[in-house]
Amino acid sequence: MTRVSKLVPEFVKLAPPELEEGVLYVSMIYGSAVHKCCCGCGDKVVTPFSPTDWKLTFDGETVSLYPSIGNWSFKCRSHYWIHENRIEWAPQWSQKQVETGRAQDRRAKLGFFAARRDQAEAAPVSAAQEHVKAPGLWDGMKTWLSRKLQKHLSKS
Ligand SMILES: [Zn+2]
């Protein structure tokens, strides 16, 4: 197995079914990148972009991903950074480190979504805007309904 020392970004709508080694396929539409594990094992590594997953930096020529990529569920258990297209190998983690990392990740995700919910409750801007529109719509409905009703009543 030969290690890949560089990944070249390719901006695509959707990654091809057969991935080429040494290419980081970036899909902005799906908010995700995919590449073949840089250790050479050929496993497919998917890195979704989100505030609690990976962040992609593109400087016009090179890409960087943050944080590092730890392929703990692969046989190779490889761990590396993608920094300005270059692969920087990082030390392998023990099972305990992996579990601690996963627990931290879960906590970060829970915290993030809780904060987002609190924000939505504290500042219901969009909800207030909807309320402004709603009576208008309802008034229209009422007029329509009462006209219908009047027609119906005048017939009988
Ligand atoms: Zn690998």
Report, as a whole number of angstroms, the end-to-end distance.
87 Å
Please, how many domains? 2
User: Mean pLDDT across all residues, rounded?
Assistant: 88
Total count of strands: 8
Q: Can you characterise this structure?
A:
The strands form 2 sheets. Strands 1-2-3-4 form a 4-stranded mixed beta sheet, with no helix packed on it. Strands 5-6-7-8 form a 4-stranded antiparallel beta sheet, with no helix packed on it. Helices cover 38% and strands 26% of the residues. It has 2 domains: 8-92, no CATH class; 124-155. With 156 residues, the protein is an alpha+beta fold. It has helices at residues 95-122, 125-155, and strands at residues 8-11, 23-27, 32-36, 44-48, 55-58, 63-70, 79-83, 86-89. The model has no long low-confidence stretch (mean pLDDT 88). The chain binds zinc ion (ZN). Zinc ion is lined by residues 37, 39, 41, 43, 71, 74, 76, 78.
Essential attributes:
elongated; alpha+beta; 156 residues; binds zinc ion; 4-stranded antiparallel beta sheet
Tell me the layout of helices and strands.
Blueprint: E1 8-11, E2 23-27, E3 32-36, E4 44-48, E5 55-58, E6 63-70, E7 79-83, E8 86-89, H1 95-122, H2 125-155
Parallel strand pairs: 1-2
Antiparallel strand pairs: 2-3, 3-4, 5-6, 6-7, 7-8
Short description:
This protein is an alpha+beta fold.
